[in-house]
């Protein structure tokens, strides 16, 4: 195959953008389709909600880890080569999932999928920034964003319809399409190795080990996994001793950056938890099938995607801090609505999901946007890598904790919110737990806003 080592121009740009659009669409859909299928998978494999949470948790953890790995490798290896590896893994994991007859195999398939599709998240923007002409970058980025928006709305609907009429195994077939785009990248994107900083493998492994250990402790309750705290201590020691650490210690000394991590963690925790709890509630309390669940959640997801286009246009007038603050308020309001009124009517779930999705989207757009003007060039790669890692780890914790709460008999007695009607007290109380996390996100934003005033004209 002919390699374009000295030509930093993408050939057949429209074809490459189509491939990227499809891969981003599949990547986003793959994070939400399986949430709708959780009730059916739980019944098929006869597992409890704590075990079922690993359908989402395993994917989120390895997706987060993969984004950081591919992002760093993208400065030392050719993008088409890395995308080939990633999409082959996505295809392999998807095929394994189609034929998975045991729950461990299903989880393995999700892990392999995450290890593959995370390459698209990490390398898609790098490809646009590096190889598209300046006058075409804005258009290319808008196509990338539109795919993400469309996937965010379609995921719940497609997941519900496929699960109901064809079976949850067909959800994996959707992702197989992504691997078909490999030849497009290999033939039209330069095989260029730009060169960059070294990848601090020990630091990355120590941080990942501590995060995964904490998740396993939450899910299993085994004190053995608390040993992961040692890995985190070693990580803090390590990054202060090496020349090019995985995370620059100076970043962790900046209050506004640490607060941005806390906000991202909390909001992803809440949103992923809601995505996990809600389909189970609709199936258990309202006895709805997966197709109906998909139709209930879809309007909220699609509506928030449309509103985010308008909010994005308003960003210059309102300011990005207003959008971030609005996001924390929305997830707090949604948590209260779910905890108090989720037992009234199923259609209300779509309205509540509009509020929570809007808050989630405000944070995913607002925090990176704000930090892009504050991070120094040398801190950009590790800063955004840690932000993405923290956010998706937060989502994984949200699902793991929710699964544990729903399995806890003590929460199934009576709802904490007296306005809750009907059955499903455990769901109301699990949503109520999210209110505490949401309030913490609002408190963090208040400190974040105060720090932003101090650093308004400065960089880190």
TrEMBL record:
The chain crosses the membrane at residues 15-38, 50-70, 77-99, 105-128, 140-159, 165-185, 223-240, 256-280, 292-312, 319-341, 347-371, 383-406, 426-449. It is a multi-pass membrane protein. Its main location: membrane. Keywords: Membrane, Transmembrane, Transmembrane helix, Transport. InterPro entries: MFS, MFS_dom, MFS_trans_sf. GO terms for cellular component: plasma membrane. It is found in: Cell membrane. It comes from the Bacteria. GO terms for molecular function: transmembrane transporter activity. This is DHA2 family metal-tetracycline-proton antiporter-like MFS transporter. It comes from Sinobaca qinghaiensis. The lineage of its organism: Bacteria, Bacillati, Bacillota, Bacilli, Bacillales.
